[in-house]
Design brief:
Elements lengths: L5 E10 L14 E8 L5 E9 L5 E8 L3 E6 L14 E20 L6 E6 L1 E2 L2
Antiparallel strand pairs: 1-6, 1-8, 2-5, 2-6, 3-4, 3-6, 6-7
InterPro entries: ASRT (IPR009794), TM1070-like_sf (IPR036698)
Protein name: Sensory rhodopsin transducer
Pfam families: ASRT
């Protein structure tokens, strides 16, 4: 299949609420970048995180195998540093091959869960 998407994506909004130690992984608040690689070669992806009051963090590096998807929780990023909770951030996602990026947030801080999802901005 042809490689679909773009090589650079932007998610201008991000926020990780404080982790609830009593919640299961499935129901803990999180942000995710859903990365889709429809092509025939692995996608080498670098993610840079931007903040309002400090220098950027990253790059965080992941590989998306050919013809596969990776649902990457920002809460799980650790190297080079964890993304701080209770802090606004934005992300730039760059790949060496075209990919598609969708942003998803699960906010479980209240009894009525909120799930939001949108395509990231394709920056070319």
């Amino acid at each position: 299949m042809q490689a679909l998407g773009q090589r650079r994506w932007v998610i201008a909004e991000g926020y990780l609420p404080p982790t609830d130690p009593n919640a299961s992984r499935q129901l803990n608040s999180h942000e995710a970048a859903c990365l889709l690689n429809t092509g025939d070669t692995p996608a080498q992806v670098a993610i840079t995180i931007f903040f309002a009051d400090r220098d950027p963090a990253g790059p965080y590096r992941v590989t998306v195998p050919p013809r596969r998807t990776l649902h990457l929780r920002f809460n799980d990023l650790r190297d080079p540093e964890p993304i701080p909770e209770d802090t606004d951030y934005a992300s730039v996602i760059e790949s060496d091959v075209p990919i598609v990026v969708q942003h998803t947030r699960l906010d479980s801080r209240q009894a009525a869960l909120a799930l939001m999802t949108t395509l990231a901005y394709a920056a070319g």
